[in-house]
Amino acid sequence: MNELDLYRNVSRIRALELLLHRYIEEHGFGGFWHPGLGQEGIQAGAVAALREDDYLFYAHRGLGYALAKGMSPVTLLADLFGRTGGSVGGKGGGTVHFVDPELGVLGQGGTVGSNFVLGAGAGISAQMLGTDKVVAIFFGDGAAARGTFHEAALTASVWKLPLVWICENNGWAISVPIEAQSPTANIADRAAAYGVPGVIVDGQDALAVREATLEAVDRARAGEGPTLIEAKTTRIRGHYEGDKQSYREDLGEGLEVPRDPLAILRERAAIPAAEADRIDEEARAEAEAALAEVLAMPEPDPDVVTEGVWV
Amino acid sequence: MNELDLYRNVSRIRALELLLHRYIEEHGFGGFWHPGLGQEGIQAGAVAALREDDYLFYAHRGLGYALAKGMSPVTLLADLFGRTGGSVGGKGGGTVHFVDPELGVLGQGGTVGSNFVLGAGAGISAQMLGTDKVVAIFFGDGAAARGTFHEAALTASVWKLPLVWICENNGWAISVPIEAQSPTANIADRAAAYGVPGVIVDGQDALAVREATLEAVDRARAGEGPTLIEAKTTRIRGHYEGDKQSYREDLGEGLEVPRDPLAILRERAAIPAAEADRIDEEARAEAEAALAEVLAMPEPDPDVVTEGVWV
Amino acid sequence: MSDATATEAPMLGYARAINQALAEEMRRDERVWMMGQDVGRMGGVFGVTRGIYEEFGAGRVRDTSLNETFIVGAAVGAAMTGTIPVAELQFADFMMIAGDEVFHKMAKWRYMHGGKLSVPMVLRLPTGVLGGVGAEHSQSLEALGMHFPGLKVALPATPADAKGLLKTAIRDPNPVLFFEHKGMYRVKGPVPEDPEFLVPFGEAVVRRAGTSATVVATGLMVPRALEAAEALGAEGIELEVIDPRTLVPLDMETIVASVEKTGRALVVHEAVRTAGAGAEIAARIQEAAFFALDAPVWRLGALDTQIPQSPDLEQLVIPGTDEIAAAARELVAI
Amino acid sequence: MSDATATEAPMLGYARAINQALAEEMRRDERVWMMGQDVGRMGGVFGVTRGIYEEFGAGRVRDTSLNETFIVGAAVGAAMTGTIPVAELQFADFMMIAGDEVFHKMAKWRYMHGGKLSVPMVLRLPTGVLGGVGAEHSQSLEALGMHFPGLKVALPATPADAKGLLKTAIRDPNPVLFFEHKGMYRVKGPVPEDPEFLVPFGEAVVRRAGTSATVVATGLMVPRALEAAEALGAEGIELEVIDPRTLVPLDMETIVASVEKTGRALVVHEAVRTAGAGAEIAARIQEAAFFALDAPVWRLGALDTQIPQSPDLEQLVIPGTDEIAAAARELVAI
Ligand SMILES: Cc1ncc(C[n+]2csc(CCOP(=O)(O)OP(=O)(O)O)c2C)c(N)n1
Ligand SMILES: Cc1ncc(C[n+]2csc(CCOP(=O)(O)OP(=O)(O)O)c2C)c(N)n1
Ligand SMILES: [Mg+2]
Ligand SMILES: [Mg+2]
């Protein structure tokens, strides 16, 4: 994926973030929306390093992961608003579940950190079936505390499973700051315990994230096992839209993104301002059109509640 | 505890090991007995560094931990054989549960590795009540793979809980060798991920184990947090008495203990052979007398099965 | 009895009532402390523990990370060594993440160790549907607490019971699973201020007297059953609505006495109907009152499906007022 | 039907029958693979998987460490990506260690993701009392599988069913909890060699015909109920003994038809009686056959206590043949 397309994805994610913020402020929202404002560079940058058929287990911080993997904003918003056009058939709501087997988007568990063991399993099947697919597993600094990480990481390393762990370290697990959760300065400092490389990148720099992820993906595909990537970033908004963040002094209620990944990418990729502005404009238009389309979609048929429990 | 008493404890544990081996070979055994033959130096050495009121969460590899903490062999064997004289009132059987609140012996979970989180909790209460008690948590190389270790270690380190983790690395988790379980050469290599000291000691050298543990205990009591000690040893017998070890090439069926902790201690502590022999003799006598006493004890009253479920 | 007392008491929300119980018990006994995700500085994701951290400080109100096995397991270890932890799992569903700690260590440690140790702790479990939190954050899992001996199980359906049962739970020497309904946190009701106000375990309360049929309901189903009963009252059907309040211990005497009077019983809960607490209660009713029954004991519960993430759809999965009324009407007609 | 076929078949142990099913299905479909503690080189701590590693190699027979969340969770991930894992937890109790993986991920992933993915896997669960393995290695937890929709639940009581149900489980596109009784591993019985021998899910089998009362028994309680029935036969009491074989799906038709004939029902399982599968079965029997019942539906199960570590004491906790006979005798006398 070239720089321009990468910029476009960062911009498309940003447009959805801002649009949803505005919409929810005005109309409220049924489920929970976990804004990823400011983390778009990690999501777009890391996914840019994946092959179309590689597997993705995303986190709950927005829609960027799946959008970058190729899912349409219409589908994703439909899942967010629990409409029929969504990938989970209207059962969705909030930032939890969307899926696209063709694109390798395998979903997420509502219990944060459950992706570690499931993702390892996808790696086992890739290894057994010889598909040379790689599994990208996104998670937050808080999720890294789960025992599932430890259990998956030890065996994934010994079995050389084709995994890439991408930690979006935004400094917070809801109200608990990273210092209260991690005895070490970096999540990547834990990599050595698992005999895997630990890489720290600037999460605001989508190109740096893509580079780091490409290296990890190559390593995984070559059968050399997992890599732990820690992308440093900041949670700009509350844990969920509506969170007052009373526990927090470091940031206000604003929407400004310090070290904005868009600005950094414009500069590092030397994208002409006019062109970048045009891309941003297209992204806003895409997002607005998608939302309008979704809000016009019918509510799901009540029968769906009992469908899909068993095959 | 002086060298002679340490030798005595190693010898007392060894005597129980050999006696139980002989007894079970002749008469069989109802529950499961997990022999600790060859690991006596770790159990006696580490516990020798504890204060009488320090807490102990032991592992399933024999009776040595609790014997060294001060419980009587009669009580322990009674628990092993499920007799009334045992500390769990005849509900016991096999190497799982014995308890002595006065001596800080707080028990063990049957699910290996559950001690990590419970032990951390004992550390929290010691911290809250200001008792300056330390918690010793024994576990094996296999148990170290449990997610409970990760979850407990991260928070115990941040909260500076007074814990000492003592890993008896005997190279096996039932039939699975350490290389198939650990991506790193040593379990202690994981300490850095938790921001705690990782110490490797020769598990056959009871004095070295005691030294390492003393340092860790002082550190914990001083409020400086946990230490991870890895004591290298070898599992001489099968996982449980009766395990044929078909999966194993490195060792035979014998009872010889390479690098015997007794021999090493005799030499390092310069204990006159005559005196050491006398101690061994007393230890054998103690073990035999204890077993005889226990086998004469009545079976528990059937009513005990429903006692103690609720307070 | 809570209800008598309750009627003259000031109105308070269910969440505030829990908050009061926590603060009062922490003042009364300094061995009582709290641990959980965001329970401290933030005052809990549902605001239930607001102000507790400010009053009691970081030593007794501990924010943890995403480590459910630690939250429960460490509470067990701290409980057996002289303190009284009140641990919170952010969602009751997370019991399954710490299943070994909840159903083995909490429930069995005392027994396995010959009764020499006890585990005086409370595990607070925000339960039930909230609106859009989905299949892994909306479940009602109280039945599991009945199937693993060693635990006690409370599920308050009113603010007064939320306060009184939690205070009793904290003073109980046994481990208690405390299911607080997160969909009821804002419900208001009279809550006694007396710091010695306790609601005993194992005492069901008759929420409404009636003669046509007995409805045994728990949690969110209590207000729904009462609404249904009011509706049927107009039709001359008088439902007796009983809220057990604790499932372990379970007050079968009150339930059986009612069924012997009415001859009909309907058990209603939000949990999945299949193998839920209602199955045990229904089985025991017919064991104890078979010859007094004029009709089979019926049960209503969640369908054999997951709770959909959609806030609109989730209500279709659990029993509603109309469904309860319809079932009761049909049962009475048998 | 298994039993018909079974009678002309060679005698085989329950553990060997499971071993045969595993080997046959792994030969039939190379997507089938195994994972668990000591299932490979050692052939399992109970010897159930002996020879599988030698035949299929380290790629398809994977020894894991002490990582139950990995064993189950990785199986779920591998199942949704084109393979068919047969994972083993060394003891059924360990489901609680991997509770989130078993009851949330295995059971709900398909539904939560709109039915776009499926989770074709089997979780093998050595269950029940063995003799001296204690409170955390002896439990019967099959009822949990009924309370979490999305799972199927099998509990074979004979070698033939052990083989036939496991083969069906492996071919089922849904996640299956397979409870194999570790106390029955050495029990011998006729086991068909036909590699297409399958025992269908949801078909109960009448193990013994009778007219006096219906006994619904599972797992180890099936042979005990049959023994009790033989004993009572001498007294002119003819028990009809039904083994559901799978709890999800559950064949209530066969059970209800029998109860409508006998008018009396006793449900027996090794699991804790309170909130066990028997509660659901009893509740459903009286819902479906209330007016055919001459007496309440009774249940026998483990006492409200833990399984003591002592091999001598553990039998006092679960139903024995004499207890079953006594209960049936009393029930018939009502
Ligand atoms: C196992 C589990 N514990 C707790 C929660 C509640 N919860 C949801 S998100 C979250 C914080 C996660 O923090 P982090 O992993 O850093 O991701 P972030 O929200 O910062 O993107 C918590 C505690 C959950 N969903 N699952
Ligand atoms: C959680 C859990 N998983 C598996 C088991 C079965 N098991 C008992 S001991 C053991 C091996 C433990 O190995 P290690 O920790 O190295 O201790 P060792 O037996 O070598 O002393 C296993 C797998 C168990 N009891 N608990
Ligand atoms: Mg975070
Ligand atoms: Mg070992």
Key words describing this protein structure:
heterotetramer; A: 311 residues; six-stranded parallel beta sheet; two-stranded antiparallel sheet; C: alpha/beta; Rossmann fold; seven-stranded mixed beta sheet; five-stranded mixed beta sheet; 12 helices; globular; binds magnesium ion
Topology:
The complex is a heterotetramer, with two copies of chain A (311 residues) and two copies of chain C (334 residues).
Chain A lengths: L2 H25 L12 H8 L7 E3 L6 H6 L3 H8 L24 E3 L7 H15 L5 E6 L6 H12 L4 E7 L2 E2 L2 E2 L20 E5 L3 H16 L5 E6 L28 H8 L4 H23 L16
Parallel strand pairs in A: 1-2, 1-3, 3-4, 4-8, 7-8
Antiparallel strand pairs in A: 5-6
Helix pairs in contact in A: 1-2, 1-8, 1-9, 2-7, 4-9, 5-6
Chain C lengths: L1 H6 L3 E3 H15 L3 E5 L15 H9 E3 L4 H12 L4 E5 L10 H14 L9 E6 L14 H6 L4 E3 L4 H13 L4 E6 L6 E3 L14 E4 L4 E5 L3 H13 L5 E5 L2 E3 L3 H11 L2 E8 L4 H13 L8 E5 L8 H4 L6 H13 L1
Helix pairs in contact in C: 2-7, 4-5, 8-12, 9-10
Bound molecules: thiamine diphosphate (2 copies) and magnesium ion (2 copies).
Would you tell me the structural class of the helices and strands of chain A? alpha/beta
Kindly report the average pLDDT value of chain A.
95
Approximate helicity band of chain C: 25-40%
Total strands of chain C: the figure is 14
- One letter per element, helices H and strands E, the order of chain C comes to HEHEHEHEHEHEHEEEEHEEHEHEHH
Q: How many helical stretches of chain A?
A: 9
The N- and C-terminal alpha carbons of chain C lie at a distance of: 35 Å
| Structural class based on helices, strands and sheet pairing of chain C | alpha/beta
Q: How would a textbook summarize the main sheet of chain A? A: 6 strands, parallel
Can you count the beta strands of chain A? 8
Work out the helix count of chain C.
12
Order of helices and strands of chain A: HHEHHEHEHEEEEHEHH
Query: Which stretches of chain C are poorly predicted, pLDDT < 50 over at least 5 residues?
Result: none
Low-confidence stretches of chain A: none
